Amino acid sequence: MKGKKPTRENNATLLRQSMLRRLPRRVAARGDLMFAAVPSLLDHYQQTLLTIFASLGRVFNDDEKAHLRTLLDSWLKKGWEQSPYTRLAVHYETDEPPKTTISYNISLNVVTIADEYDHWAKTRTPPLFGAHPDAKVMDIALAQGDPSACPVLDIGAGTGRNTLPLARAGFPTDAVELAPALAKLLREDAEKAGLSVRIFEGDATNPELGLPKDYYQLVILAEVIASHFRSVAHVRQLFEIIAGSIRPGGLLVFSAFLALEGYKPDAVARELGEVFWCPLFTRSDFDLAMQGLPFDRISEESTLDYEREHLPPEAWPPTGWFEQWTGGRDLFDLPPGRAPVELRWVTYRRK
Q: Do both 268 and 304 map to the same domain?
């Protein structure tokens, strides 16, 4: 007995779906994606790629998903270890029909702090960080008494926004700058102004940099820990160097993004904070970084509020990005005053 013939399908919805299942044979695509190499976003990046591939008719099975995840995890960790500005590059291309598969490869585009600032120096109109010194820096320096007896070290000096005004005011002023492009601009501007500024070009956490011992009355880090320091251990290295260079009774003043009361940054927030030039710390982080070092914490205040109150009207805002950045809104897409972090001035005294 012959088998019963199958019934021909005439349901319009099912027929449309069946034709769309054939469509990937005629879909061709290639593309490139660049992701910030943030390890804690592994799930997000995997789902993003799976969604893009599925939209091209390339749906991964469980083994293919696991392989993609393993590759992403490995490359993200490698990139993050090298720099928070590293980009994860994903190139994909559909395979030749009638195949309905897709090929992809992952690589890294490593970008360092020096690379970033070199690009700034070449593409941005000076002054790169504003035309006026920080009010907090100048106020605390002038409060020390005779400028000639108050050696100052400006770490992460950039193009000299604080260094040059301090030197003009009579303070013996040294500067540390990691980025060669910025150190070059600072050196040129100091020479043009006839100012005797000693410049240490290199990493402030390097014990071989050559900073003098027990010499400085004031050490400042404006927007440095706030932009580039990656961990408590990294900050600890810096504080150890400063402890050896600052004289007893001297002051350490720095700005940093601090989590406000009730907020505990998770791994995503901490890593993305580095990507957006606002690494996050807690007060207990700094307590840990200072543990056993000869410093007492003496003050803390909002950078935004202090500078807005004390800078002259013509100097406000210092840059077009200052208010948004100091308020934590480069990281959190929230209205003003709603972000759970802010940039704060922190002051310690050397015992």
A: yes
Q: How far apart are the first and last CA of the chain?
A: 102
State which amino acid sits at residue 342: E
In a domain, 140, yes or no: yes
Per residue in 92-149, pLDDT (tens digit) is: 999 998 889 999 999 999 998 888 877 777 877 666 677 799 999 999 999 999 999 9
pLDDT tens-digit readout, 64-86: 999 999 999 999 999 999 999 99
Q: Among residues 266, 256, 225, which one has the least CA distance to residue 342?
A: 256
268 closest CA partner among 332, 326, 323: 332
Q: Same domain, yes or no, for 90 and 154?
A: no
Angle between helices 42-55 and 62-82 (to 10 degrees): 130
- Residue 247 CA to residue 150 CA, distance in Å, equals 10
Total domains in the chain come to 2
Instruction: Give SS3 for 197.
Output: strand
Is the same domain home to 260 and 283?
A: yes
**Per-chain mean pLDDT for the chain:** 94
Helix pair 135-142, 303-310: axis angle to 10 deg: 70
Say which amino acid occupies 338.
R
CA gap 269, 262 in Å, rounded: 15
pLDDT one-digit tens code per residue, 238-289: 999 999 999 999 999 999 999 999 999 999 999 999 999 999 999 999 999 9
DSSP tag of 193: T
User: Measured between alpha carbons, how far is 104 from 92 in angstroms, rounded to an integer?
Assistant: 4
Helix (H, G, I), strand (E, B) or coil at 317: coil
Any idea what DSSP says for residue 125? P
How long a stretch of residues is the chain? 351
Please report which residue ranges of the chain form alpha helices under DSSP H: 12-22, 42-55, 62-82, 113-123, 135-142, 163-168, 180-192, 225-228, 232-245, 267-275, 283-290, 303-310, 322-326
Residue 266, phi then psi, degrees to nearest 5: -90, -175
| CATH code for the domain of 328 | 3.40.50.150
Cα separation, 121 vs 182, in Å, equals 7
